[in-house]
## 1
Amino acid sequence: MTADDFPRFPEGFFFGAATASYQIEGAHDADGRGPSIWDTYCREPGRVLNGDTGDVACDHYHRYLEDVALLAGLGVDSYRFSVAWPRVQPEGSGPANAAGLDFYDRLVDELLAVGIAPAATLYHWDLPQALEDRGGWRVRETAERFAEYTGLVVARLGDRVDRWITLNEPFCTAFVGYAIGRHAPGAREGRGALAAAHHLLVGHGLAVRALRAAGADEVGIALNPDRLVPATAAPTDLMAVRRAETLHNEVWLDPLFAGRYPAFEAQTWGEMADGSYREDGDLAIIGEPLDFVGVNYYRPTTIVDAPYADPDPATRTAVDIRTAETMRDDVRRTTMGWPVVPESFTELLTDLVRRYPTLPPVVITENGSAEADVVSQSGQVHDSDRVAYLRDHLAAVSAAIDAGVDVRGYYVWSLLDNFEWAFGYERRFGLVRVDYDTLQRLPKDSYRWYRDMIEHHRKETTP
Ligand code: IFM
């Protein structure tokens, strides 16, 4: 691959790499960290492939110096990490556990020392178990506790962290966690999941206020809006897409960027969406202005009409909306089974701006691919499929910018192979391979490709 293959970006566009606390840190009981819902979930038989847990993960908690050196070698402008709430408040409320915050203090200092801007995500799914025991995101109290926790983190790191992300993919927390049950806490509910979605948004808005009160500069949220495509042009499939738009996209985007709740929710959920979890004034909290919206994108989703999986409205979950997802088989798929369709990324971004004219600037907060990596006899990982994925998806972002979308930066998912939730350690997204027996790090070809692309961009855009 030559420099001609590198996608082009405007001057000032930034590049980064992303990770998340539970997926890499390990040290699950170090320095007073309390249990999170993922610690509990992983210990329930049959929940996570091979019974894997995040107890050790990549041991980043003890090896962060080595990982920051890898980031420096990559030449990224910014590193997106997440703060583990149970390190800061082991019981989910009360004063900060200083030893837990010390870790992020050291990490931030080290990043700044090598010229990398820290970008902190406040919630990437590791809710303190004590809060789940009191109802978790189903109850409003968790939103209030989230704002309190945010205040503790920004008070300690706000003098050095400029970019803040409140929530990562609230869709997954609310629906994969409380309706599909494939993520912690493993619930399969209807109204409970819709209440969780709402309280996540309220928590986000309250956290934005806490960040602003502390003088934070750049504040956003990381969503995973879906590019939904009907399987056929049949009116029934088009209506299925309409319902899926409510579930996947409008639940988040409408209150955040259009000051309303989704218009189609009654048709999507019926009485389950009774709105009883909403209070007057919530839309104003949720709609606090943001400096950017983070977009996590991996693949498009093809939608078909389908009968209810559960005919009984009393036990039906919030994802059972007479709609099913099918996987395309006319394109390559990653080891997640996800179709590789880069042009969908451009369509998603241009469509977002068209539908939400007040959308703030976009930052791509995640994009990457899980591949069947092999260590060669000479000890290298020649992950050409991942390189092609990154090249084509970065080109898709570049095309969206050419089409008028204000995209400011891109974080690759992920710096390291890590704990891929219900798939445990069996799916590898990293630019750097982690040997889970020795915890040794090994940069892959994709690491070198991304490094060269960033360097090329700098040369081309530095006057
Ligand atoms: O690993 C996850 C990440 O935690 C959230 N976004 C999607 C990634 C890949 O599945």
## 2
Amino acid sequence: MFVSDPDTQDRKLISLVVPFYNEEANVESTLAVIAENIDTQRYSWEVIAVNDGSSDDTLKKLLTVRSFEFKLVVVDLSRNFGKEAALSAGLEQAMGDAVIPLDADLQDPPQLISMLIEKWEEGYDVVLARRVDRSSDSFLKRATAGAFYSVINRLSDVEIPHHVGDFRLMDRRVIDVLKTLPEARRFMKGLFAWAGFRTTIVDYIRPERNLGDSKFSGWKLWNLALEGITSFSIVPLKIWTYIGFIVAACSFIYGSFIVGRTILFGVDVPGYASLTSILLFMSGLQMIGLGVLGEYVGRIYLESKRRPAFVVRSVHKKAINRDS
Ligand code: UDP
Ligand code: MG
């Protein structure tokens, strides 16, 4: 059990929330790098490590890792719920005056933490860490990420900043707002941006993943992008009214032209090719419209069940080791 230390009472507490999914190779090194980069003189620290249903030895390593100069809270989820849910579970447990989510693979460098805190001390509620150089990501990932941000920002009223991941510092006030949001399906970057508050930016160069492999396949990223767009914009739904008007107007003009031509020049030989292509094009268009509708209806359905975003199996707390 964690025993509160009298000399830590008046210091502000900073919580680091780290989701771990099959990251056994990174447990020890990531926690060690965090420990090297925190100012234990001026602040108290806790690391909330969320085990997102790993099938490897991540949990065992988290529970048996040596003590550091921060309190370690291990939140074990009942299965893999995905990074967004794991972050929510971590935020739920975080007690800090400021909270910083960061990846378990050291791609969100703990070296930056002191800079984030500096800005927070200046009075900002949110300090974003922005990647100035994404050369550690593949060309395809950069191109698709760029396209995603321009699409979502055009469609949504909430401005989701480019090149900013989940890595950021948020004041307790922001976390309290996030905790009141009732939705189970959470696109965290969007929710963070939705909350607003006084925001500033710190730039950094994103390093390569430390050990292990990326947990996000192209398909998972595509679904995350859909989640982001459908939870922050209804433009894809509304646009069908306008497409309908345009298609109807074009059909009317073309129809009048055919009727006029028939009256003036008599009945033409029926146009098999044009008829078929119009039919195919229109049914394709209708299918797309239905598909978009389906995306939203599906989400309404899932949300209406009111299932929680994650299930916690157990929470383990490990005190600070002052002798280390
Ligand atoms: N992660 C998670 N649950 C998942 C997938 C990923 O908690 O279902 C964690 C993962 O352990 C890591 C972070 O989310 O700490 C980012 O994952 P990753 O580094 O694989 O993503 P990338 O950097 O390749 O986008
Ligand atoms: Mg990574």
